[in-house]
Amino acid sequence: MKTAGVKPNVYTYSTVIDALCRNGQITRAHDVFAEMIDVGCEPNSVTFNNMMRVHVKAGRTEKVLQVYNQMKRLSCPADTITYNFIIESYCRDGNIEDAVKILNTMVKKGVLLMCILQSNLWVYFEDKDVNAAHRMFAKMKELKCKPNTVTYNMLMRMFADSKSTDMVLKLKREMDDSETEPNVNTYRVLISMYCSMGHWNNAYKYFKEMIEEKCLKPGQSVYEMVLQVLRNAGQIKKHEELVEKMVDRGFVTRPL
C-alpha cells in the first residue's frame, strides 16, 4: 500500500491493529499504533477498543486501563464499547465500586446503559456470583434502566440455583408488576425449581399458566419433568389432564 503511494488512514491502521491483536501479536500491534501516531494519523475509539479487547478477554485489567488512560491523554472520546470493556474488567476482578464509578460517568455523559449493564450481569451469571449480580440489578433500577425478560431470567436462574426460592418469587412478582412478559425460559426456571422441591402443585400451576395463558410451547424436558413429579406424587388425574392439554394444542402426540 505504501509502495503504491497510498497513505493509510485511521480505518487502515485500526484494521491492522485489530488483526494483530486477534492473532496474539500484541507487541506488533503497539508498534503499528506508535507508527500511526508518528505519521500524524489520529486514532479513534475503534482503534483503542481493538487494543483493549484482547486484554479484556485475557483478564488483564491493568493493561485495559493503560489503554484507556492513553485514550484520555490523546483526547479521544470513549464510546459505549470502551466503557463496557472497562466495566467488564472491573466486574471480573470483583471491583464493584470502580465499576459503579464508570457507570456514573456514563450517566453524566448520557451514554446508553442497558446493553452494558446486561452484559455485566452475564459475567456474574457465568461466575455464579449471586450477590454481585443482585447489586448490579439494584444499580440498574437506581439508574432507571428497566430490566427486560432476559435480565429477570438470569437473576431468577441464579437464585434458583442457590436455593433462594423467596428471591425467585419476588423477581417473578416484579416481572408481573412491571408488565415484563415472561418467556419459556422464565417458566423453565420456576417449574424446575418446584419440581426439584417435589412441589407438584406449583409446578403444575406454572405449567398450565405457560401453555394456557401465555400460549407458550414448553420444551420436552420441562414437560417430562412435570409429568414425572405428578406421577411421583400419585396425581394420575392431573397427569392425564396435562397430557390432554398438550395434545389438544398440538404440542405433543398422544402416547400409544
Write the layout of secondary structure elements.
Blueprint: H1 10-22, H2 26-38, H3 45-57, H4 61-73, H5 80-92, H6 96-109, H7 114-127, H8 130-142, H9 149-161, H10 165-177, H11 184-197, H12 200-213, H13 220-232, H14 236-248
Helix pairs in contact: 1-2, 1-3, 3-4, 3-5, 4-5, 5-6, 5-7, 7-8, 7-9, 8-9, 9-10, 9-11, 11-12, 11-13, 12-13, 13-14
| Oligomeric organization of the protein chains | single chain
Can you tell me the number of structural domains? 2
Shape: elongated
CATH fold node name of the largest domain: Serine Threonine Protein Phosphatase 5, Tetratricopeptide repeat
Helical fraction equals over 70%
Please tell me the CATH architecture of the largest domain by its name: Alpha Horseshoe
Radius of gyration: 25 Å
Describe the sheet with the most strands.
none
Mean pLDDT: 84
Number of E-type strands: 0
In angstroms, what separates the terminal alpha carbons? Answer: 71 Å
* Structural class label: mainly alpha
Percent range for β-strand residues: under 5%
Number of helices: 14
Protein name: Pentacotripeptide-repeat region of PRORP domain-containing protein
InterPro entries: PPR_rpt, TPR-like_helical_dom_sf
PPR repeats: 9-43, 44-78, 79-113, 148-182, 183-217
Organism: Rhododendron williamsianum
Tag the structure with descriptive keywords.
256 residues; mainly alpha; Serine Threonine Protein Phosphatase 5, Tetratricopeptide repeat; 2 domains
